[in-house]
Amino acid sequence: MGQSLDGVLDPLLRPRSATGRVLVTGWFSFPDGEVTAGDFLAERAVADALGRLGVPHDSAWSPHFAPGALTLEAARPERYEQVLFVCGPVHGAQLTRLHERYASCRRTAVGVSVVDGESPAVRGFDRIVARDRDGQGLLADLALSARTRPDRPVVGVALTHGQGEYGRRREHDRVAETLYGWLPTKDCAPVEAETRLARGDWRLCRTGDQFLSLLGRLDLVVTDRLHGMVLALSTGVPALVVDPVRGGAKVSAQARVVRWPAVIPGEALTARALDSWWTWCLSPAGRAAAERRRSLFR
Q1: For residue 252, what are the β-bridge partners?
Q2: Is there a contact between 106 and 82 (Cβ–Cβ < 8 Å)?
Q3: b/e map 257-285, b = 16+ CB within 10 Å
Q4: How do residues 132-165 score in pLDDT, each as one tens digit?
């Protein structure tokens, strides 16, 4: 970066009073904006730097992304001496509204892209330290300065919405609804692991070998598919399995063949059962059990 983020922010925020608070904002703050991984890490980097500098600060988040966190609506202008906007393009009506709401505060942008230097969004800031302007790189992206904790499990999700042959025994829709509501509660990096193959669709694997390469890089597979289970186990990856057919069908039958315990009947599916098997699958015992299944298949 050439200069530490602390070294960039310290002079940028001066003059400042001893008790003056800074409101950290970005595209992650707007209800009609979006939150990218880069935005998230940029906010973390800036908040950490302000903490090291001893600057009182808050961060404003979109209520859609972070329910219960401080929002722009709740962050009253009179509480803040300065507003700091971080990351992303300085462009659009959301920035103009930000300037209007916090007109009484000194407004600074750092680590941003300046596309049109004459736009109201740009001209509303008192100071800007751009990461790029007119195609020229000026500052390393703020996300590079963030403390990273990339130790979250990478979890593949392989679900089926078909299998009409099971008729009234199908629990597929309820199983999917339950899993889709539960998965966002887990601290993991989710990856769609679609077992369907295709040619000409970049989102899908073209061969079984490609799919096995994908599975082999995961820490866990959550699935209601027979091949989601057995192919995960063939690569030594634990599978958290739900049998989506009432009374049990091919998924449960194959689980008994390979003696894999982490199977929940669809009619008994609960968040508590999912949490319990999630913990076991990611434990040393679960990983060892999956590894033993791989050796059996060789």
Answers
A1: none
A2: yes
A3: eeebebbbbbeebeeeebeebbebbbeee
A4: 998 788 889 999 999 887 789 999 999 987 766 7
Distance CA 114, CA 178 (A): 43
Between CA 210 and CA 52 the distance in angstroms is 46
Q: Name residue 290's amino acid.
A: A
CA angle 43–45–46, rounded 5-degree value: 65
The full DSSP string for the chain is --S-HHHHHHHHT-S--SS--EEEE-GGG-TTS---HHHHHHHHHHHHHHHHHT--EEE---TTTSTTS--TTTS-GGG-SEEEEESSB--SHHHHHHHHHTTTSEEEEEEEEES-TTSHHHHT-SEEEEEEETTEE-S--GGGGS-----SPEEEEE--S--GGGGGGB-HHHHHHHHHHHGGGS-SEEEE------SS-TTS-SSHHHHHHHHHT-SEEEESSHHHHHHHHHTT--EEEEE-BTT--HHHHHHHHHT---EEEGGG--HHHHHHHHHHHTSHHHHHHHHHHHHHH-
**Per-residue pLDDT tens over the stretch 69-105:** 999 999 999 999 999 999 999 999 999 999 999 999 9
Place of tokens 């601290």: 187
How far is the C-alpha of 245 from the C-alpha of 166, rounded, in Å? Answer: 7
Q: Facing residues of 216 across strands?
A: none
Task: State if pTM tops 0.90.
Answer: no
Whether the CB-CB separation of 57 and 23 falls below 8 Å is answered with: yes
- Single-letter code of the amino acid located at 178: T
Please give the pLDDT value at position 109.
97
